[in-house]
């Protein structure tokens, strides 16, 4: 109970900090959303229309990634000197014999500076071939990924995932960049110090996404994992990172972004709930310095999140909201996914999203774009995970 009370206090403190900033009142009234014009995902910055898959992949998609690197998430360093890993602990009879536990230490070295990512990985013992995997970017307490399973959490229901035939893994964001306005520099950014002085330099969200790719580097070396079937999952700020990881790294087979809100899956131009100015004020360590140019200046933003969602195509994408989490703009999130549809269409993929947002607890679990708005608060729950698993299972069966 103590960890629950501690988390409740922490979350309440964050809510006070976010919502009680002087002079800021969130808009929760659709009638007060100002008129806005979104950049067309299939028109280049020089007004050239994109009509083919080849033009999308060679011209527009790279342009979109560059826009996000320069204006929002910062650069994404691709090179490093060395990656090694070791199995710190292994238990072939975890979860009462259903799973094998591997606690993996992944060490990345660049310019003689190391960082370590501590991965908790469970494999289903009832498998006849390498297992597909769900990888969680854990932005909550480390006890959510307890390798002993003395503490179990719906935030990371590892037993449910194992019972469904998938491997499941998680790492904590603090290994890459502590979620703190001062301490975020203590991690990945020590390997790339030039990022700290660049206006388009990577900060915490980028560091977490970078870490997901380094975990995938390891997973490609693990014979027990089907590295071509790795889904990256994130909640809230972790969901912002999962989107950026999947957009930057096409090796991720599937992306899940849960209640990711502003600068996640929701449209920034709508100015509903959390805004760019608010997120940059409260969390100045998340995004590149250039992003602050758009505080209270959304109309000048040369991109929006529907373009990031589209950059994941043709890979499947699952997006969620919660009914009481208006701060994360459920309508703007759904619209963002809808506006990404026409890029999936370039690949001959037909979205199953309805014209209007579906009713509460009416999930759309047919690929290529899944969506649900769950009853309840801002959280990651067993209900969410059941739908992620169903979505992935349908997709992998379609590929056979």
From TrEMBL:
Pfam families, sorted: GCE_fung
Entry superkingdom: Bacteria
Gene Ontology MF: a single term: carboxylic ester hydrolase activity
Signal peptide residues on this chain, from the entry's feature table: 1-20
Domain 4-O-methyl-glucuronoyl methylesterase-like: start-end pairs: 106-348
Protein's UniProt keywords contain Transmembrane: no
Keywords, alphabetical: Hydrolase, Serine esterase, Signal
The name this protein goes by in its record: Acetylxylan esterase
Organism from which the protein derives: Spirosoma foliorum
Origin organism lineage: Bacteria, Pseudomonadati, Bacteroidota, Cytophagia, Cytophagales
